[in-house]
């Protein structure tokens, strides 16, 4: 008993430690997106540079110019959680309107005379945006929904801050897409009420906190770390770089580019060889990186850059990876989660064609069904390198909870449960009242030892 209790306590500590670790990394470099639109015009905002994180000072300065001195009515749609990835994951494939969870938001952005989109606003604590607006408008927020708003009379000769809280999926009741869709309906209703009231307004849609933080934590130590490592430690190999007319246009770095052509899983690590880049190509909407190895293997990555209407920005997708060997070709298409904002790089700790497949084989050629890819610590960028010889901020493919974290979490919970069960059993122990009952059956005390 004491040993199991002790180990439970150890895992409880591990469990707490894990959470502290998660939350401390979260606050280090997290961001939320912010969308802002107005029924009047907004001052222009210099479009954020590639992979740029907007600081709170920049937002403060912008809001100061946007709100000027006169009275303003501001609608703040504050969702419990929001990250830029929500727009691509739930925004409909390639901006397909019917499929989007943000139809009203999209319509509002399109129909308003001006809008501002900040994909990555520095996030430090949940109350920052609200506090900032409160300070700029010099009023207290009024919590409303579409219903109460329709009964509210808005005095336009003073500033108003109307707060609409929106939930984020908790994973228990509705699907994330459904929750975001319902939120979007709410936004639509509120905007209709404002239109009916004929009150000019500025609306802001943002998150109380990020919904995904893994890319931020990887950002803080990935690209910077890699270039630092390059400077300090010559053993880290440089990235593969394809230049078009002297300017870098595709970059790839990988710890291992393992391929296997047989069922025996003999891995060949192509990252150990230096390829020729002949046949590579890039323009503003399409990039193809062809790596031809002296061992006879040809590995090619094709990427494209498209406009997703809801986030009104370009995103790049890793569309397919092809492997050619001995005159045969196997193609693998990237599942939809291989994407990144076009100015960013894409990073993935593990890209495989078999285990939690990010790459799915497409051609039905019987001769290549056993071909497999296993890339470790892959980082690729096909657009927006401009003048840089460094990867931009990395968008990470990993979910917030990786398999490792899940395993640790579940084990800890199980141990905690066992511990609680043990405690419960101990609490249930009573002195036997039958000692006091002479009429009851006699007690037999088993002779154990
Ligand atoms: C509207 O607000 C202004 C400024 O605070 C105030 O002078 C005016 O009385 C208000 N009007 C109504 C109808 O409340
Ligand atoms: C590509 O351009 C970068 C920066 O201009 C340079 O450092 C690099 O050596 C070039 N690579 C090739 C293969 O020309
Ligand atoms: C990839 O290949 C290298 C060299 O063959 C090997 O050392 C490494 O363990 C392989 N990695 C994986 C994940 O298969
Ligand atoms: C980029 O190249 C692709 C493939 O060659 C072509 O279809 C596309 O039109 C090109 N785009 C631009 C903007 O040049
Ligand atoms: C597969 O391999 C066999 C024998 O090597 C060959 O005869 C056949 O044409 C190949 N099939 C394809 C689709 O390449
Ligand atoms: C690239 O270089 C040009 C001039 O050499 C400069 O004007 C431009 O701002 C640079 N772009 C980036 C993204 O650094």
TrEMBL record:
Keyword check for Transmembrane: yes
InterPro entries from the UniProt entry: Ac45_acc_su, VAS1/VOA1_TM, VAS1_LD
Gene3D superfamilies: 2.40.160.110
One Pfam family matching this protein: VAS1_LD
Membrane topology value: Single-pass membrane protein
GO molecular function, one term: ATPase activator activity
Localization: Membrane
GO cellular component, as recorded: bounding membrane of organelle; cytoplasmic vesicle membrane; endomembrane system; plasma membrane; proton-transporting V-type ATPase complex
Annotated V-type proton ATPase subunit S1 luminal domain residues: 247-383
GO biological process: apical protein localization; determination of left/right asymmetry in lateral mesoderm; eye pigment granule organization; Kupffer's vesicle development; melanosome organization; protein localization to plasma membrane; regulation of cell population proliferation; regulation of cellular pH
Entry superkingdom: Eukaryota
Signal peptide range in chain numbering: 1-29
Keyword field: Membrane, Signal, Transmembrane, Transmembrane helix
V-type proton ATPase subunit S1/VOA1 transmembrane domain segment(s): 399-437
TM segment ranges: 398-419
Primary site of residence: membrane
Family: Belongs to the vacuolar ATPase subunit S1 family.
Protein name listed in UniProt: V-type proton ATPase subunit S1b
Gene: atp6ap1b
